[in-house]
Amino acid sequence: MPEISVIMGVYNELNKDILMEAVNSILHQTFEDFEFIIYDDGSCPEAATLLREVAGLDERIKLIGQDENHGLAFSLNACIDEAKGKYIARMDTDDYSYKHRLEDESDFLENNPEYDVIGGNVDYYDGSVIWGKTNNCQGIIKKEDILNSVPLCHPTVMAKREVYLAVGGYPNFKRCEDYALWIELFSKGYKLYRIKNTVLRYHLSLEDYKKRTLKTRKDFFRLLNTQYTKLNPTKSQIIKIKIKNIIAGIMPYKIMYWYHRNKARRRNV
After folding, report:
1. How confident is the prediction for the chain on average, in pLDDT?
2. Taking a C-beta distance cutoff of 8 angstroms, is the pair 36, 61 a contact?
3. Contact yes or no for 2/33 (Cβ under 8 A)
4. Where are the alpha helices (DSSP H) in 56-129?
5. Cβ within 8 Å of residue 59, ≥6 positions away
6. Predicted confidence (pLDDT) per residue in 158-210, tens digit
7. Helix axes 177-187, 72-82, angle to 10 degrees
8. What is the rounded distance in angstroms from the CA atom of residue 269 to the CA atom of residue 265?
9. Angle at CA 56, nearest 5°, toward 51 and 60?
10. How far is CA 25 from CA 91, 212, 263, in A?
11. Helices and strands per DSSP (H, E), number in the chain
């Protein structure tokens, strides 16, 4: 039985170089006792062929999937159903895990069993250069952290498999399934923590900001009316986060990209 199950949902990833870089960053980890479960979420024939090629790289890779597209939450839950590891680690197709990531995160969970879900810090990468980082934030995730923002960067997360199973995996939300899960876990008394280690190069480019429209935030506002209320927020906290996301959704994406790059630059000077 592997110690760690790495899970990744994939839909129509046609850039072979990016996909291979992400996959190889897991295959070349210093910690080697893992399985790598990849879910093909109804990709087109060309992308599906690429995934089959990827699956042949290493016997630790297990490719599963369906012909229909169901979304990331469904894909990750299917991976969780297949997982055998004590811990489950997330990975995305366009990110890069630094080689000590699995070792650092599993060591922390082994030495600090009171925590159930952990994440790490990231370097922000636009496809050419690293333009910022999360500034070595560290510590237990508090209620205020979750009320104000998404407290953990999803592809850095490692969690106890039993915790995922206890709450039924990821809630069915698009583009915010991670935030919905953190709220669910916190509301049920599970402990979340961010370690100081920078564990991943996180792909965040102008094209990513282009997708962050008000329309794509529809499920996020549904989350605020359902999951978010489990934290017993005040009316002012609800209004604040709604206004924040409305502004982010209607603001031209180039301005939002410029704003966050400059904010990261000032923070890391």
Report:
1. 96
2. yes
3. yes
4. 72-82, 101-111
5. none
6. 999 999 999 999 999 999 999 999 999 999 999 999 999 999 999 999 999 99
7. 60
8. 6
9. 100
10. 10, 27, 28
11. 11, 10
| Residue range 87-115, pLDDT digits in tens | 999 999 999 999 999 999 999 999 999 99
C-alpha 7/C-alpha 194 separation (Å) is 19
Contact between residue 13 and residue 47 where contact means Cβ atoms under 8 Å apart: yes
Tell the residue number behind the tokens 């205020």, with chain if given. 144
Cα–Cα distance measured from residue 155 to residue 99, given in angstroms and rounded to the nearest whole number: 14
DSSP letters spanning 214-243: TGGGHHHHHHHTTGGGGG---HHHHHHHHH
End-to-end CA separation in angstroms for the chain: 45
Sign of CA dihedral 16, 75, 95, 103: negative
- Write down the residue that tokens 């923590």 correspond to: 193
